[in-house]
Design a protein that fits this description.
- The complex is a heterodimer.
- Helices cover about 30% and strands about 20% of the residues of chain A.
- By secondary structure, chain A is an alpha/beta fold.
- In chain A, a hairpin with a 2-residue loop joins strand 11 and strand 12.
- Chain B is α/β, with parallel strands linked by helices.
- Chain B is built from four helices and eight strands.
- Classes of the chains: A alpha/beta, B alpha/beta.
- Strand 6 of chain A pairs antiparallel with strand 4 of chain B.
């Protein structure tokens, strides 16, 4: 009989005891008794041939039995036997593989086209064949989608899917380089397909002229290896993220842009974090302006889109260090990159250990965006005025003070003659410049900011404040089409 | 498996310091939460570029440090210089049950991917666990929410 000390990793097999009594006169007999009492230990102490595994060390008191009489070492009642692990390991030989399905051969034309890839050993014929086999789906054919799709098509990604339902607008052309001036008014997917097919006819372009939704996302994603998020709004961004996770962890090459700042990461891989690990909840509606509201530097999506395309190509070929678990922030004005470390959140509602989101939800509702209320037919004459009515009253000679609450750079683009510029942010400190008894019409680009200004002015005692419905845009449309719109 | 505070950085640093040789050390903590690491010497005689060994005396030392630190020995970490952070057959052949095995890949002297593995009870294979750390504080993240 002797006491055997059990090391931490084996305690689950001894009912959590760190010491077990066993009977026998030698180490061999003691261990036989021990494994009889606790049969789960056997597999871990002995190999298939019934010999003690090489990394299992048995000590009698403070001596290794290898230096005593090995397993025949005698043990008395006063002796303590310890099982002490050696911990060992080493590096393997296999490497990351990227796309693993059967790879198509390259034609002679393709070999010529991709020769600058083929001569780099990191890419080579194998990497190019992976690109040819790969299927990438780009959500959005706008600012980010343009450089992503163009570079992926040029690089030889075999199948490129595009989801978009928009029509090319003049205001897109400053950054959405898939589309040109003659394309204005055409569906974006049409001009994208023409441009991409001219760039590389070897690529199969599949277009989906639909709004991505909880109803169609999983089906759309199904055939694709990588999803590229080129969306410009939170509901679709959460939808893309969740659909990537729920499709069995399809990588989401994420990018976003705003004014002079861009962000990029790779989300929703098997071991990496997803968008929700960083942002479990969307920001309150209206807090973060869109590009249409806040503006965006035209070259910015070029930079971010190319990061997304680079990550996509690396993921497909299985080379380099992907942007997984890292969040890249780019500041165009200061020309600086910052990197944040991101971890997979065990409590993440979609990719955590106990997910609560197991199917796609209503993302508009999740982001607090209600469907737009139907346009009211009647104008509330106590608080609002239309552009046509304002024009009629000005022509009639009424004394109406027009206050433009936009920013100076907007005022430079177009304005209502005779209006006074007081940006919304300055109203609280400058409202005393206005006469509270005079009739005032406040006006901005479309009527949202001026609505806030009107509320404020009424709250400080202004009697007659009217908001110009539809803002300067309606004014240009209905009263003065000679002025530009933006 | 969660790594608190400087645990991840300490493992990465150790891996970079010993590059091109493998590093090894013990993971200390409680209920799946690694709170401390104990760096240990790699005593292998088979070439430290591809192997590591924690000898019994160091194992005992690790257990002792674990109880000093008020935790348990949760497992071990080691590095794979210029190889992916995936366990080898050799790792499998030498693995102990219930222990967490964290592997950090060190490429050209720079620590990169980090994974964690647990031996299946029948010793047939490793099962990959999930490694978690702490994300940027939600308040800071909110400012970044674009």
């Amino acid at each position: 009989m002797a006491k055997i000390l059990i090391p931490t990793p084996l305690r689950p097999y001894t009912d959590k005891q760190d010491a077990v009594d066993a009977s026998g006169a030698t180490v061999a007999e003691l261990l036989a008794d021990l494994t009889k009492k606790h049969s789960g230990l056997k597999n871990h102490l002995y190999n298939e041939q019934g010999k003690l595994r090489s990394f299992v060390n048995i000590y009698v008191n403070d001596e290794d039995i290898r230096y005593l009489q090995k397993e025949q070492t005698p043990v008395g009642a006063a002796d303590t036997v310890s099982i002490i692990p050696s911990v060992a390991g080493g590096a393997p030989t296999e490497v990351a593989s990227g796309v693993t399905r059967t790879l198509p051969e390259l034609t002679n034309d393709e070999i010529k086209r991709y020769s600058r890839h083929l001569i780099m050993p990191e890419v080579g014929v194998e990497g190019q064949r992976k690109l040819k086999a790969a299927k990438v789906l780009c959500i959005g054919a706008g600012g980010l989608g343009s450089p992503v799709a163009m570079y992926l098509a040029a690089a030889g990604v075999g199948t490129l899917g595009l989801v978009d339902f928009d029509v090319v607008d003049f205001s897109n052309l400053q950054r959405q380089i898939l589309h040109g001036t003659p394309d204005v008014g055409r569906p974006k997917l049409e001009s994208a397909k023409t441009k991409l097919q001219a760039l590389n006819p070897e690529v199969e372009i599949r277009t989906y002229e639909v709004a991505l939704s909880s109803q169609n996302a999983l089906q759309l994603f199904e055939p694709y290896d990588v999803i590229v998020d080129g969306t410009d709004n939170f509901p679709t961004r959460y939808l893309v993220n969740d659909a990537c996770v729920l499709s069995g962890n399809k990588p989401n090459a994420y990018g976003s842009i705003f004014r002079f700042e861009g962000q990029a990461s790779v989300f929703a891989t098997k071991d990496g974090p997803c968008y929700r690990c960083l942002y479990p909840e969307p920001p309150p509606p209206g807090l973060v302006p869109s590009c249409a509201e806040g503006g965006v530097l035209g070259v910015l999506p070029g930079m971010i889109g190319i990061i997304q395309a680079t990550e996509t190509v690396k993921l497909i070929m299985g080379i380099g260090e992907p942007l997984i678990g890292r969040f890249l922030i780019y500041d165009a004005l200061r020309m600086r990159f910052r990197e944040l470390k991101l971890r997979k959140d065990p409590d993440c509602p979609v990719c955590g250990t106990h997910p609560t989101v197991k199917q796609l939800i209503d993302y508009e509702q999740f982001c607090g965006i209600r469907p737009a209320a139907p346009e009211p037919v009647a104008v509330n004459s106590a608080t609002e005025i239309t552009a046509v009515e304002l024009k009629r009253r000005l022509d009639r000679g009424d004394t109406v003070k027009i206050v433009d609450v936009r920013e100076p750079n907007e005022y430079q683009i177009n304005r209502i003659p005779g209006s006074q510029l007081i940006p919304l942010g300055d109203i609280p400190k400058r409202y005393e410049e206005l006469d509270p008894n005079e009739e005032i019409v406040v006006q901005c680009k479309s009527g949202v900011r001026s609505g806030k200004a009107a509320d404020f002015l009424r709250s400080v005692g202004f009697k007659r404040v009217l908001n110009l419905k539809g803002g300067i845009l309606d004014w240009v449309d209905k009263v003065d089409p000679s002025q530009p719109k933006y | 498996m969660t790594m608190t505070g400087g645990v991840e950085a300490a493992i990465r640093r150790h891996g970079a310091e010993t590059y091109p040789h493998e590093c090894c050390g013990a993971l200390v903590g409680q209920s799946g939460r690694v709170t401390d690491v104990v760096a240990l010497p790699n005593t292998t005689e088979e070439g430290p570029r591809r192997r590591f060994l924690v000898r019994p005396s160091d194992y005992r030392e690790a257990e002792r440090r674990a109880s000093e630190l008020g935790g348990e020995l949760l497992g071990f970490y080691h590095s794979h210089p210029d190889h992916p952070a995936r366990p080898s057959q050799y790792d499998l052949d030498h693995a102990w049950p219930t222990f967490a095995y964290i592997i950090v890949s060190v490429v050209n002297g720079q620590a990169s991917d980090m994974t964690v593995w647990f031996l299946k009870d029948d010793r047939s294979t490793f099962e990959e666990g999930r490694l978690h750390g702490e994300n940027p504080h939600p308040d800071t993240a909110q400012a970044l929410h674009r």
